[in-house]
Amino acid sequence: MGHLSKICILGGGTAGWMTAAALSNKFKNLDLEITLVESDQIGTVGVGEATLPHIRYFNQALGIDEADFMRSTEATFKLGIEFCDWGQRGDRYIHPFGDYGQPIDDLDFHQFWLKQRQAGNPHRLSEYSYPIVAAEQGRFRIPGSDTTAIGSNFGYAYQFDSSLYAGYLRRYAERLGVTRIEGRVVDVARHTETGDITAIALDNGQSVAAELFVDCSGFRGVLIEQALGSGYDDWSEWLPCNRAVAVPCESRGTLLPYTRATARTAGWQWRIPLQHRTGNGHVYWDAFISDDEAADQLMSTLDGPALADPKQLFFKTGRRRKFWNRNVVSIGLSAGFLEPLESTSIHLIQEGITTLIELFPTGRVDSRDVDEYNERMGLNFERVRDFLLLHYVATQRDDSEMWRYFRNMTLPDSLQEKITAWTSRGYVLRYEFGVFLPPSWVAVMLGQNLVPAAYDPRIDRFETPDLDTRLERIRQETASAVAETPMQADFLQRHGAASQSDPLMAARA
Amino acid sequence: MGQRMTSEPVGIVVLGGGLAGNMVTQALATHLGTSVRITQLVDGPGPVGDVLYGSATAPDAYNFLRHLGLDEPTLILKSRTSFSFGTHFRTWPDTGGWLQAHHAPLALIDGIPMRHVIARTGTLLEPLLISAQAALAGRFAHPPADPASPLSHAEYGYQFAVDDWTRLLEAEVATGTARRLTASVEAVETGEDGIIALRLETGERLAADLIIDASGVSRTGLSSLGGQFRTERTVGIYPTEATCDRTGPPCRVIEASERGWSVRAHLQDHDRILSIGAPETATGTDSGFVAALGRVERAWVGNCVAIGHAACVTEPLTPAPMMLLQRDIERLLELIPVGPDMSVERREFNRRFAADADHAALFQRALLVGRRDAGGAYWQAAATLDRPEKLDRKIRQFCHRGTLVAYDLEPFNDEDWTILHLGMGRWPKQHDRQVDRLTAATADRELTVIRDSVARMTQQMPPHDIYLTKLKQYLDRKRNA
Hints:
The complex is a heterodimer of chains A (509) and B (481). Chain A has 509 residues and is α+β, with helices and mostly antiparallel strands. Helix content of chain A is 34%, strand content 18%. Chain A has helices at residues 14-26, 54-61, 66-73, 109-118, 130-136, 162-175, 222-227, 291-299, 345-358, 367-393, 401-407, 413-425, 438-447, 464-483, 488-494, and strands at residues 6-10, 33-38, 76-78, 80-84, 92-96, 157-159, 179-182, 185-190, 197-202, 207-209, 212-215, 232-234, 243-249, 259-264, 267-273, 278-284, 311-314, 318-320, 324-325, 328-330, 336-337. Chain A starts with 5 loop residues before the first strand and ends in a 15-residue tail after the last helix. Chain B has one domain: FAD/NAD(P)-binding domain. In chain B, strand 16 and strand 17 form a beta hairpin. The model of chain B is unreliable at 1-10 (pLDDT under 50). Chain B has helices at 19-32, 61-67, 72-78, 114-121, 130-137, 162-174, 220-224, 320-334, 343-366, 377-383, 389-401, 414-423, 440-460, 464-480, and strands at 12-15, 38-42, 82-84, 86-91, 98-101, 108-109, 112-113, 157-159, 179-182, 185-191, 194-200, 205-207, 210-213, 229-243, 252-256, 260-266, 270-277, 289-296, 300-301, 304-306, 312-313. The radius of gyration of chain B is 23 Å and the shape is globular. Chain B has an eight-stranded mixed beta sheet. Chain B has a six-stranded mixed beta sheet with strand order 9-2-1-13-20-19. Chain B has a three-stranded antiparallel beta sheet with strand order 10-11-12. With 481 residues, chain B is of the alpha+beta class. At the A-B interface, helix 4, helix 10 and helix 12 of A face helix 9 and helix 11 of B.
């Protein structure tokens, strides 16, 4: 059996160039020709500027220098996500990349906190989390090697300009031999017997033949849907927001190492601070707010002057029924869309790429690889969906139609059981596969006022005065470690990651 | 906000005094302290079926046992426990035999998982595994922390005598806070929510909020609430012992025959042998008995939680029986009820129990399905076992191209499955494309380096018996210092 030797990636946004970079690195020096087709006339969506800590492993696997990458993409460090107004108006909490406190005798720290809270401990759980306290103060440093030590027990991600990231990876991939072709798809040729796509015809007259196509064409799904009709599972019932309006603005104030997501009456608004500008967007459900009103809400709450006109986006939450169909693998928005409330867009791209590499066809596409890919990616999407839905239903808000809709929703059994187990005894149902680990569930449930009625009875074997001492030590060590941490802007300089360009400024009248 | 915190202590009764009963009593007493009243009810020696726990643990038993007061020095000095690098399937139908070794994640070669490289080159896995080579050579030493040492990749469990550990745990329980009663249960009073009280032969009436049924296959508590056991098949068990001049290798040895199979555990001063075959093989023997393999539908019914053999009985082909007992206890500790309404705890315990038991069964069944009929009634029964879709996916994907399929929180890890698949002759038909990055000469050189370092390390390790003798001398000196 001959080796698969030609791949075509359709689409050159974040998904396309991440795929091109990873495949060209993993299969370098092999007889594998990678072509990426993109059109400058087709804009990229450019959301997904905030990431999860896993992105670091992606970059490391490519051998990317962190400081160089950050300078080139105007990146900032990210310690978590701040959620404002989600449980009730006026609430705020940070979902950190890291656990709270330290386990005591292998028992989760939050259980000790629950008991001490009952005994009158006035301190918030977040005061025992280094990444939260550091984020609140705008501080950052790289964690040390002992990841159990306070001050190093956290992960971090980045906030970056995704267009610049795509460009950065384009240069990387082209150095490794990826060929870029400019053009729009006007026709698709299919094998008469197998139905596989054999070539795509471009508006410039070129035809690109390949044995495997990776569809990174965005919402349109030019190959996976328009050509192959792979189907789409609509999840609007759970996550009904279906539009967004996005706009960058000038940076203002301290450079914060976290993303902010503020709940609104018919959706929520993001704020992503980069070195040269701040990204903003309003995700909403058009049943309860007009486009103009949504844009007005966004524009009236920016930190600084807007740098462009608001850009409108339309989407339907859900997943492609077959992520991989015949000889086409969909990655990125062509594979599905989940609102970027927890910065999962780029993560799901990364999962798609990692899984594709693990199951990369040796010769012809094999149905066993296709089945396995679809099984794994389906699980990834479903688990993210449940976690996103948690934000909307773990709330006391009922001040608008949208919030009342969520209050009356019948939840998927898996999510309902998680919430019940948590509220009854602070227990988090665990699973191994899926991006969000128990500390993330603790952060959101507690942050949105789901306070357990009881704690783990095993905590009662510890003497209360002893626990007081231990918890206070952890709190103070956390505060001390943060006090020794530089402000993010200073750390970026020290790390060689500071932008060398001037901050973007709006055109003055 | 503003909800009231309640963590109400409950009284717990443990039914049973064998390995499971003593282990769970000690675990509860250790983890709950004096906040909960614990009573253990024992009605004689441990169940005869306890031999089915199989004389072997997985590596993660170390910390679990340590928390129960059975740290390694205690096990080595006060019982006949020895070390285990795995199980040697010396003969097994349709295979050439292999060592099912305990091993840390297998090495990456130029970023490529080792299984893909050996699939491409047709290299045997076993000579690359330090725990397998040491076990085959009968040698043992503790794995060091230094990752530069090939021995650091080995993981180990224990070979043990179930009666030794039952006794050690009984002594630990006696010094703790649990109350131990010796009496038979004459009747179980039940109500809508479960068991109300146990009436004992002594006339005492023992009420409890939570009953832990560790009574083995008699399932005294669970059966009173209508708990159903699903029998998969029945087997005959015949336990024996054999003297030895010196401690055998740090692994159990399994040999298959037409009648079934036997496993030999090498303890410090003797060997324990368990022969398993069709039910009739146990008849007419002094100590033989018949056991039904399978599991209960729900391990937690009402206010009664079945653990160990009261919940699931599986063949000791692997350390699965001890892994499941440990998981039963860990799961219970995480879900001790916080009030009279146990519905949340019950649902979660049963969900996890079913997942653990079924995932362990996948591994066990992977040893049995797809084998040719080896002749006897045992193998005929094994040949009729179905292949669940989850197992089918694992085997299909590995045989296709060495892809490892894993489910949430399985008891057996990727290394266990890789070693098992290859041991069973399930060789990937295609190699992973990434391997083509390596030239044949580079792959061969990299594998040779690992193989040679494993061989050298094995030669430097002492025989298992000598290591144990010296370790005991050292521990004795330390304790007496």
